[in-house]
């Protein structure tokens, strides 16, 4: 079940450019290599840990480089394969590792999910607000903006609770 290297290379490129606007997809940095190993379940927490991945990454990259090429990436995978699939032949282990990677891309769709917990719903339900907070929202639960937050003074000249506001002219004109 030899996998095509093209599929593995496509995944390599997708992970290589992940989160890096300047990346060309020809080289992968350590952070993305670790992310790829996590997303493709190469890191299983038992045989292969993030530390193992970091060590292998440092081992295969060029001395002063901070990235690895696809060739070095393959070296790294060969090394990780024997760790991840203990007791398998080197070729078999590498093939299985490629199987985990082929066709994969960075799992970042829906990383931040909107928390809709019952507690949050209760806290954001404006119908349950009391006191001065109640004044900040209309009946539909929509905020009134500044009018709901600040005491805007009534500059009409009438006392706050006066009901006959605006009737002065009529009283003067027709007594």
From TrEMBL:
Basic and acidic residues: compositionally biased ranges: 132-152
Listed GO biological process terms: microtubule bundle formation; microtubule polymerization; positive regulation of protein polymerization
Region (Disordered): 129-175
Domain Cytochrome c: start-end pairs: 25-105
Subcellular location: Cytoplasm
Entry's family note: Belongs to the TPPP family.
Descriptive protein name: Tubulin polymerization-promoting protein family member 2
Annotated source species: Cyprinodon variegatus (Sheepshead minnow)
